């Protein structure tokens, strides 16, 4: 009984720290250390803290994080976002709803280069939203498309969320990247279908400018090198030529060459790119390390072991337990960002999924997809907040516009749950 009271007190402390807006990394680290101190004593807890922090932050695979972030920073500073949108609009913007579908297409390109959902949403809100409004798109639809398009960066490789999941669960990041390709494209196709339906049933999405082949070809000239770089980075991982960290280094070198040759990056912007990559990396590594401290506390309390015993002896089916986990993650997504959800949930959810004999690659994509949906759901809906801040559209209007897209997102999630081969087909063909 005293043990359970201590565990409940630790959970209350964690909740209080989060309520008072302490960063999730520090909240988990502090509560994990306090729990270890109560469980083992201060001196052993300090020894565990020292070893855990070093082991988790010294992992070689973490090298991929600053490299992918730096690649994204360089390409964003190099005006890639605006050029990708212009190119997609030139090819399909003349259809009814074409500008919105072009925004989704540009979001796929940006997702494959940026890897951050909020950064992708902010970039699209600054570039694509004014263009749609200039062509008489409704505020509601334009802001909603910008919000949902940004979520593609969570699934489409190189996703930072997939990297963090791979580090936390010791799952192959290369296979996670490849596994995210089909679900990402499936999601983008679903979003385009919803846009088409809205365009043909309402007056929210009129036609754009007439199609001009010369303009479309010319606009693609600057985007083509980025697509080649994207194919090289993902192809190197898929073909077994390079590890994710090596492919990330290739991506940084390629993006630097592109922005230098296109003369779109100043020395001052380069400094900003490096600083931004360092800040984002420190935040992510802190989350990974502090999550490991909290996981160690759970291990010493044998909470994870007790949960696995419950799973082994319960009468509930695998599907029921999986549904409970998915619903829990969806509820967490209403209040927390994706990295916080992973760091809090994976110490318990991942061992449970492995005990139920679920594939770790498939489970990672399902979790990532669930977290992606959380970025759109009220009351937090982080992407909706970013879009609202950038566009000035009221949150309530954005959430109403997101509703039909949410239905499609849930449909894609169900397809991934019931048909695992959608996720596992490409990774099964990898050379290593």
TrEMBL record:
InterPro entries per record: DctM (IPR010656), TRAP_DctM (IPR004681)
Residue ranges crossing the lipid bilayer per the database entry: 53-72, 108-129, 141-165, 177-199, 223-241, 247-265, 277-300, 320-349, 361-382, 402-426
A single MF term (Gene Ontology): transmembrane transporter activity
UniProt entry tagged with the keyword Transport: yes
Family, per entry: Belongs to the TRAP transporter large permease family.
Residue intervals of the TRAP C4-dicarboxylate transport system permease DctM subunit domain: 11-422
Subcellular location: Cell inner membrane
A single GO cellular-component term on record: plasma membrane
Record text on subunit structure and interactions: The complex comprises the extracytoplasmic solute receptor protein and the two transmembrane proteins.
Membrane topology: Multi-pass membrane protein
Swiss-Prot/TrEMBL keywords: Cell inner membrane, Cell membrane, Membrane, Transmembrane, Transmembrane helix, Transport
Superkingdom of source: Bacteria
Main location: membrane
Record function comment: Part of the tripartite ATP-independent periplasmic (TRAP) transport system.
Amino-acid biosynthesis as UniProt keyword: no
Protein name in the entry: TRAP transporter large permease protein
């Amino acid at each position: 009984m005293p043990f359970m009271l201590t565990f409940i007190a630790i959970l209350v402390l964690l909740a209080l720290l989060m309520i008072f807006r302490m960063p999730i990394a520090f909240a988990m680290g502090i509560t994990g250390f306090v729990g270890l101190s109560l469980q083992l004593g201060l001196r052993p807890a300090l020894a565990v803290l020292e070893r855990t922090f070093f082991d988790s932050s010294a992992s070689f695979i973490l090298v991929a994080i600053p490299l992918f972030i730096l690649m994204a920073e360089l390409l964003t500073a190099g005006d890639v976002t605006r050029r990708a949108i212009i190119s997609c609009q030139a090819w399909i913007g003349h259809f009814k709803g074409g500008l919105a579908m072009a925004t989704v297409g540009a979001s796929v390109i940006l997702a494959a280069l940026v890897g951050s959902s909020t950064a992708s949403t902010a970039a699209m809100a600054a570039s694509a939203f004014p263009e749609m409004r200039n062509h008489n798109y409704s505020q509601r639809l334009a802001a909603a498309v910008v919000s949902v398009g940004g979520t593609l960066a969570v699934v489409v490789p190189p996703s930072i969320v997939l990297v963090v999941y791979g580090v936390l669960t010791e799952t192959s990041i290369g296979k996670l990247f490849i596994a995210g390709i089909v679900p990402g494209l499936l999601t983008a196709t679903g979003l385009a279908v919803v846009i088409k339906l809205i365009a043909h049933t309402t007056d929210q999405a009129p036609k754009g400018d007439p199609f001009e082949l010369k303009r479309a070809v010319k606009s693609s000239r600057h985007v083509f090198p980025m697509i080649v770089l994207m194919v090289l980075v993902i192809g190197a991982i898929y073909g077994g030529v390079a590890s994710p960290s090596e492919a990330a280094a290739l991506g940084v070198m390629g993006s630097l060459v592109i922005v230098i040759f296109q003369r779109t990056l100043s020395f001052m912007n380069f400094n900003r790119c490096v600083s931004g990559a360092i800040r984002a990396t420190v935040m992510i590594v802190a989350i990974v390390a502090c999550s490991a401290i909290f996981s160690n506390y759970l291990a010493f309390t044998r909470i994870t072991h007790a949960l696995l015993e419950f799973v082994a002896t319960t009468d509930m089916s695998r599907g029921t337990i999986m549904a409970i986990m998915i619903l829990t993650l969806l509820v967490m997504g209403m209040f927390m960002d994706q990295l916080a959800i992973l760091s809090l949930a994976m110490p318990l959810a991942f061992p449970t999924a492995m005990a139920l004999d679920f594939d770790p690659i498939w489970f990672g994509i399902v979790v990532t997809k669930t977290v992606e949906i959380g970025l759109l759901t009220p009351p937090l809906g982080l992407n909706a907040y970013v879009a609202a801040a950038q566009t000035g559209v009221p949150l309530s209007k954005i959430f109403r516009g997101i509703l039909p897209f949410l239905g499609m997102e849930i449909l894609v999630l169900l397809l991934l749950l019931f048909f695992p081969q959608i996720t596992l087909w490409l990774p099964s063909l990898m050379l290593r």
